[in-house]
Design goal:
The protein is of the alpha/beta class. Helix content is 38%, strand content 17%. The protein is built from 19 helices and 17 strands. It has helices at 2-16, 21-29, 35-42, 102-118, 137-153, 173-177, 195-202, 208-212, 214-221, 231-242, 283-290, 335-350, 368-372, 375-388, 403-408, 432-439, 447-461, 465-469, 482-492; strands at residues 49-51, 74-81, 84-91, 122-126, 159-163, 166-168, 180-184, 189-191, 226-228, 297-299, 307-314, 317-324, 355-361, 393-402, 418-421, 426-428, 475-476. The strands form three sheets. Strands 10, 11, 12, 13, 14, 15, 16 and 17 form an eight-stranded mixed beta sheet that branches. Strands 1-2-3-4-5-7-9 form a seven-stranded mixed beta sheet, with helices on both faces. Strands 6-8 form a two-stranded parallel sheet. β12, α12 (335-350) and β13 (355-361) form a beta-alpha-beta unit.
Length: 510
């Protein structure tokens, strides 16, 4: 028995070395941790249980039969984050560059199946050179199996992709299907076709970092939700992020202890909105003052900055926040912000996370670029997302709520449960100046008359009371009491039940 145990430990030691000490040292020299080191940081101490440590590939071509390292380039298993179950896989770049083979894919698929079956989040740590060329079509079939399970898991369990190295070619579609994608700066990149192919086809000269680095995908494409400086930071922030999420669509998000008075009064909110309606202010300040202990985990902070999305807690319970940001494009909705918010709202609805919407929106961004690129269909995505959502929805209008942009941002007619407004709110088809110029176009030469009519229009319509009289706004509240009113609103909606008509699936305006 002693001999067998020694043999077992020797095989485990060899498996833990992956591609060998030299390749581990090379990984460290690039500023990257190994797959196992990453999992140690991500998961609670001594909680990781590994699957398929001794699995090897079955390829015999190109001399592969003589090189069959245990684990085949991916470490899979389960563990806990702050005591809550998660399933994980981490690609090991020290073994064949983390390339995906048939057995590599099967290991990932096993973990995906277990996550779906047992109702727990799936976290993938991607660091791979792509498909294993020596296995040809078998590796491509492996990717298809992984993608299929990503699709089946969508809306069932939260899926998080951490891009901590290369992720190129077909491999990028797994992170694209998952719910959230985080990247490390300087050591990770994602693209369908690399710089060499781009140069050959288009004659463009671009580096891997410029084409598909963390900054490119968090600021330009919106493919990634956040970027972090190194492996340690991304793993620590992922632990924090998972705490906001439920384990699956069969559970509600966790409730955490809180030490912040739900009835806290914030006098500073009384002066947050400037007297001049054309001056901006930072909506993020309002989000932080509503949140427990000011904790706000923002999603896609550097992309489509005219809308804020992220998670806070109110009375210890997770709430998704969507808020117009007047500091960027005056808070106008455009194509990117509509897509960003719609996807976030749909995630919250899929996992029973209540939604708080903070509105200061003067309309959709005008321009030929927006119209020709499809603002109509992209804006419809946001309307669709809010309209189909059955989770508790609380809306607060702080200043401008004009036209179609007001409608799609969880208005009362889009099944908003509580719709509040500050006294500074202006709810109308459009701004006073534009409305007067249309209504009195024959008098545009008389500037004094137009100024007087504009002032009259503002006095009559640039306020929340017309909407309140018609029941489109449930209450006009004092800014200082915003946290208390919103907390009470969500508390009253905890047992909300609402169902949509049966359908095989909807036809979202993609």
């Amino acid at each position: 028995m002693k001999h067998i145990l020694e043999q077992l430990e020797a095989r485990r030691k060899a498996a833990r070395l992956g591609g060998g000490q030299a390749r581990i040292d090379a990984q460290h020299a690039r500023g990257k941790l190994t797959a196992r080191e990453r999992l140690e940081l991500l998961l609670d101490d001594d909680s990781f249980e590994e699957f398929d440590m001794f699995v090897t590939h079955r390829s015999t071509d190109f001399g592969m039969a003589e090189n069959r390292p245990a684990g085949d380039g991916v470490v899979t298993g389960w563990g806990t984050i702050n005591g809550r179950l998660v399933y994980v896989y981490a690609q090991d770049f020290t073994v064949f560059g983390g390339s995906l083979s048939e057995t590599h894919a099967r290991k990932i698929c096993k973990i995906q199946d277990m996550a779906i079956r047992n109702g727990a989040p799936l976290i993938g740590l991607n660091d791979s050179g792509g498909a294993r060329i020596q296995e040809g079509v078998s590796s491509l079939a492996g990717y298809a199996e992984v993608f299929q399970r990503n699709i089946l898991a969508s809306g069932v369990v939260p899926q998080i992709s951490l891009i901590m190295g290369p992720c190129a070619g077909g491999a990028v579609y797994s992170p694209a299907i998952t719910d959230f994608t985080f990247m490390t700066r300087g050591t990770s990149y994602m693209f369908v076709t690399g710089p060499d192919v781009v140069k050959t086809v288009t004659n463009e000269l671009v580096t891997a970092e410029e084409l598909g680095g963390a900054d490119a995908h968090t600021q330009k494409s919106g493919v990634a939700d956040a970027a972090f400086e190194n492996d340690v930071e991304i793993l620590i922030e992922t632990r924090r992020f998972v705490d906001f999420l439920p384990l699956s669509n069969r559970e509600v998000p966790p409730t955490r202890p809180f030490f912040d008075d739900p009835a806290r009064i914030e006098l500073g909110l009384d002066t947050l909105v400037p007297d001049n309606p054309n001056l901006p202010y930072d909506m993020r300040e309002l989000v932080v003052k509503i949140a427990d202990e000011g904790d706000f985990f923002e999603i896609q902070r550097d992309f489509a900055g005219n809308i804020l999305c992220g998670f806070i807690r109110i009375e210890g319970r997770t709430v998704g926040v969507v808020a117009n940001q007047p500091l960027v494009l005056a808070g106008c909705l455009d194509i990117d912000s509509s897509r960003k918010a719609a996807r976030f709202v749909r995630f919250c609805d899929a996992f029973s996370i209540p939604i708080l919407t903070l509105i200061d929106v003067p309309g959709f961004l005008p321009g030929t670029g927006q119209e020709w690129d499809g603002i109509i269909s992209h804006g419809a995505k946001l309307a669709f997302a809010y309209g189909e959502a059955t989770v508790p929805k609380v809306t607060l209008i702080t200043r401008k709520a004009y036209g179609g942009a007001y409608i799609v941002m969880s208005s009362k007619q889009m099944r908003g449960d509580f719709n509040y407004a500050w006294p500074t709110a202006e709810i109308a088809v459009m701004g006073a100046k534009g409305a007067v110029e249309i209504l009195h176009r024959g008098e545009l030469d008389d500037t004094d008359r137009i100024a007087a009519l504009t002032e009259d229009y503002e006095d009559r319509f640039a306020n929340p009371f017309i909407a309140a009289e018609r029941g489109f706004v449930d209450e006009v509240i004092q800014p200082r009491s915003t946290r208390r009113r919103i907390a009470r609103a969500f508390a009253s909606l905890r047992n909300k039940q609402q169902n949509n008509p049966w359908k095989k699936h909807d036809n979202l305006p993609l």
